[in-house]
Design a protein that fits this description.
There is one protein chain. With 332 residues, the protein is α/β, with parallel strands linked by helices. The protein has a domain of 212 residues: 5'-nuclease (Rossmann fold). Helices cover 48% and strands 11% of the residues. The strands form 2 sheets. It has a 7-stranded mixed β-sheet, with helices on both faces. Strands 3-4 form a two-stranded antiparallel ribbon. β3 and β4 form a beta hairpin. α2 crosses α3 and α13 runs antiparallel to α14. The two termini are 33 Å apart.
Length: 332
C-alpha cells in the first residue's frame, strides 16, 4: 500500500525530512523490513536473460537470491534485520486487491497476443507476478538457516506492525517502499535511495516523520487526513484533490470534517463512510503490541547447512557463497 504523491509532496513542503545516508550510520541498530515489496522486486529483477534464476531442477530461486543478498548487505554493516510478513489484510482493502488482480488478468490476456514486442512481453510478464505460499516458505527456511528473525501475524499489514515496533523503540527504522508507513506514525522510514545521482547500494533514503510534522506545521491526525485525501488503499478520494491541494485544504480547514462542513467539495457517500474507518486502520496496532510476548521467530545460524543450501539448492557458485558467508562470519 502507498499514499499517492506523498513523496513529491514531501520534496516540496518538507525537504529537510528526506536525507541520503550510508547504512553504516545504523551500525548496531535493529531495523524492521517489510518483506513483500522486496520479494516482488527480487522475482521481477533478479533474472538472467529475462528469465527467473532457477536451480538445476528448474525451481525458481530469484526471490531467495534477492533476499539473501539484501540481508547480507544489512548484516555486513552491523545492522540486525527483522523481517515482517503480511497477515490477512483488512476488508477495506478488498477493492484495491481486486483491482490488482484485474490488472494481472489483463496482462495475462495481453501476453497471449502475437503482436507484442519482446520488451513489452517482459514488462507484462513482470506485472503478472503474485506472491505464493511457496515463496514465503522458501524465504522462511532461508532465514532459519541464516539465524534471521521474522514475524508473521495472522492479521494486519506488515508496514503497520513494523511502524508500531519503530514507534515503540523496538527497532530504529522501518525498511519499506510503502509511504503509508509514515501515516502509521513511524519515526524513520528507509527507502531505496531517491537521489538518482548516487549509485552505491549501501546508501539509502531516510525519511523523518518528526521533521515532516514540524515542517508541515500539523498534528499527526492532520497529517493522516492529508494522506487519506492524497489517496490510500482504504478509501476513495475526493474529485480534483491531489497531494498539494490535500495539504492546502487541511492547512485551511484543519480536518476532513472542516472540509465537509464548508460545503465547497463534491464528497461521495462512499468517502463519508470510509474516511473514518481509514483513520482507525492507521492506528490498528497503536499501543497494542506487547514487546514481552513478541511473536518473533528466531533460530541459530547454521553455516554448514546454509552453505550447502545456497550452493546446491539455490545454484550459487561456491565462490559467491564463500564471499557472502565471509561477510556473515565477521558480523554474527
Amino acid at each position: 500500500m502507498g499514499i499517492k504523491g506523498l513523496t513529491s509532496l514531501l520534496r516540496d513542503k518538507s525537504p529537510q525530512s528526506i536525507d541520503s545516508i550510508a547504512l553504516s550510520q545504523y551500525r548496531g541498530k535493529r531495523v524492521a523490513i517489510d518483506i513483500s515489496i522486496f520479494l516482488y522486486k527480487s522475482l521481477s529483477n533478479v533474472r538472467y536473460n529475462g528469465d527467473y534464476l532457477r536451480n538445476s531442477e528448474g525451481k525458481i530461486v530469484s526471490h531467495l537470491i534477492g533476499i539473501f543478498h539484501k540481508t547480507v548487505l544489512y548484516l555486513s554493516v552491523g545492522i540486525t534485520p527483522i523481517y515482517i510478513f503480511d497477515g490477512k489484510p483488512p476488508d477495506e482493502k478488498r477493492e484495491c486487491i481486486q483491482g490488482r488482480k484485474d490488472k494481472v488478468e489483463e496482462s495475462k490476456k495481453r501476453l497471449e497476443c502475437s503482436d507484442i514486442s519482446d520488451g513489452e512481453k517482459c514488462k507484462l510478464e513482470k506485472s503478472t507476478i503474485r506472491l505464493k505460499k511457496e515463496h514465503i516458505d522458501d524465504v522462511k527456511h532461508l532465514f532459519d538457516l541464516m539465524g534471521i528473525g521474522y514475524i508473521h501475524n495472522d492479521v494486519g499489514e506488515a508496514e503497520a506492525y513494523a511502524a508500531e515496533l519503530c514507534r515503540m523503540g523496538y527497532v530504529h527504522a522501518v525498511v519499506t517502499e510503502d509511504m503509508d508507513t509514515l501515516a502509521y506514525g513511524c519515526p524513520r522510514v528507509i527507502r531505496n535511495c531517491l537521489d538518482r545521482k548516487i549509485k552505491r547500494n549501501d546508501v539509502v533514503t531516510c525519511i523523518s516523520y518528526d521533521k515532516i510534522i514540524d515542517e508541515f506545521g500539523m498534528s499527526h491526525d492532520q497529517f493522516v487526513d492529508v494522506c487519506i485525501l492524497c489517496g490510500c488503499d482504504y478509501c476513495p478520494t475526493i474529485p480534483k484533490i491531489g497531494p498539494m491541494r490535500a495539504y492546502q485544504y487541511i492547512m485551511q480547514y484543519k480536518s476532513i470534517e472542516g472540509m465537509i462542513l464548508s460545503n465547497k467539495f463534491t464528497i461521495t457517500d462512499e468517502f463519508r463512510e470510509r474516511y473514518l474507518k481509514s483513520r482507525e486502520l492507521f492506528k490498528i496496532f497503536q499501543n497494542k503490541i506487547d514487546l514481552e510476548s513478541l511473536p518473533l521467530h528466531k533460530s541459530d545460524r547454521r553455516m554448514g547447512e546454509l552453505r550447502n543450501y545456497l550452493h546446491k539448492d539455490c545454484g550459487l557458485s561456491e565462490k559467491k557463497v564463500d564471499n557472502a558467508l565471509r561477510k556473515l562470519s565477521t558480523n554474527p
